[in-house]
């Protein structure tokens, strides 16, 4: 699949925002700690991916009722769903000058019902012209997402026969539908009832 930058200016994928707040001390501290033992872009990106994937549980797996959406809050609370974890990883990438984008899939149950939008990350190493998608959701039985910039190893490969979709667009900021669902949910049970089913 050909990934499409929504913004042709690569600097848009290094910018900070309320959700991707890579200027925040919590993000900076985590970024500096990871960079100190991984002082090149590739190894830092891999370490940042594994840090978000493995040390921040997906709240559906952990049962945590809190809803975090700012990258700094995700890192501080060690909690978030796929979108929030994607915000955290993009912030960590951008904190070290690595362009990071948000991208999405539309997934469904095994019978094609209950569609839901799933959040991913794409990165582009400074020495590259190619974007690679990653899924920091968090592994569990049946889910084995890996850091691989050559061949995608996502948590959920799409099944077109069930109406699932890989959206090719690379967003510099969270999709408004996703951000609205996060910001307007007081807890995870309410968020589950308002998860976007399409972009």
Describe the structure.
The chain contains 7 helices and 6 strands; from the N terminus they run βαααααβββββαα. By secondary structure, it is an alpha+beta fold. It has one domain: Roll (C8orf32 fold). The strands form 2 sheets. Strands 4-3-2-5 form a 4-stranded antiparallel beta sheet, covered by helices on one side. Helix 1 (25-36) packs across helix 5. The radius of gyration is 16 Å and the shape is globular. 40% of the residues are buried. The mean pLDDT is 95.
Domain count, please report it: 1
Q: Taking Cα atoms only, what radius of gyration do you get, to the nearest Å?
A: 16 Å
Please state the overall shape, judged from the principal axes of the Cα atoms. globular
Approximate helicity band: 25-40%
Report the sheet with the most strands, covering strand number, pairing sense and barrel closure.
4 strands, antiparallel
The name CATH uses for the topology is C8orf32 fold
Oligomeric state: single chain
How much strand content do the residues show? Answer: 5-15%
Q: So, CATH architecture?
A: Roll
Total beta strand runs: 6
Uncertain runs are: none
How many DSSP H or I helices? 7
What CATH first level would be assigned? Alpha Beta
Order of helices and strands: EHHHHHEEEEEHH
Distance between the termini: 18 Å
Mean pLDDT: 95
Biggest sheet strand order reads: 4-3-2-5
Supply the helix-strand structural class. alpha+beta
InterPro entries: Papain-like_cys_pep_sf, Transglutaminase-like
Domain Transglutaminase-like: 36-136
Protein name: Transglutaminase family protein
Organism: Streptomyces virginiae
